[in-house]
């Protein structure tokens, strides 16, 4: 009608859209005796599953089971989580933070910048490489505030956050940045990596561990010959097409560990696959992940070459974070050249760093290193003792994390017995989709 007004209609419409897009989050401690249930129900968009899993893993929560289901434009995910000690979540501040974080994943916000200069490095791994990198940074007056280093199939990827030693500010001078990048590229090239060594300054705020996956994927580490023969702990990955339903079914079976689901979902997402349904189950120290996927355009995997590529990439995503070697934790007062000195000591004693996590907080350095011998085998205990004496016995300690199976108590069997009750609590949409896929026998 002419002249009819709709006061506030646009505001009400925006509110409605916001309510539709904002995930509904329920955290339930009553259904399962051994784990906290985290339920996320929202409009579906590409990458939202990864963001939900990322929130959980960034809080160091262990995902024991998960049910993933989508119906048209909607999805529902249910996660069974515990803390690192295998206990349910009871801290109200943690629960509140978890609820708030999951309720904002629809915004698609990038990782908040830490105000540092981010250096990305990829190249051929070798004994002493990290020592040379940190030595160059120390010489160029760069203070390493945070860093993560992964190695896989003879390749290395590292994301290093630095600031200027003198000013304490991010490094913005283009000439100095060019000098840093050039020097580090020469170190990475060595004598035999002229074509593939890469060094750059990151201009984005991508989640650090997701970015490491992307860097190694771009480096095609999944195609390279493994340095060591795969063990029985190597992930078993199968990919088959479910023709009648138009899905490709991905199954991953491997040793359970922290952040396993994040690594798998991160890889599938960055390869432009959408997980429509999934079941994740862990028992003792083993994990089984099953995903029903399609391309973002709605089509399943269409060729044998593509199928093999998915298998290789998922195997690589699981193996990149696999801990090889002795775990050494360094906790000491931060000082200039600390990392250069520590890693030089490793190099001089024939130890190779296979993984590293570096952080500083209130002038205290909290660093984690996994080290092997020069050939990738177990490091000699006497050499480890010698290195600890040189660096400081009270500062550098050997730490062995308990296995996932040790973290799970006998209550695990009780959790299995209430599985039927858990499924009944998931909601009609999820139960119907699991039934249609043949994953449960009845949804009535």
Automatic annotation (TrEMBL):
This is ACT domain-containing protein ACR. InterPro entries: ACR1-12, ACT-like_dom_sf, ACT_dom. Binds amino acids. GO terms for molecular function: amino acid binding. Keywords: Repeat. The keyword Repeat applies. SUPFAM superfamilies: ACT-like. Gene3D superfamilies: 3.30.70.260. Residues 37-114, 118-202, 327-406 form the ACT domain.
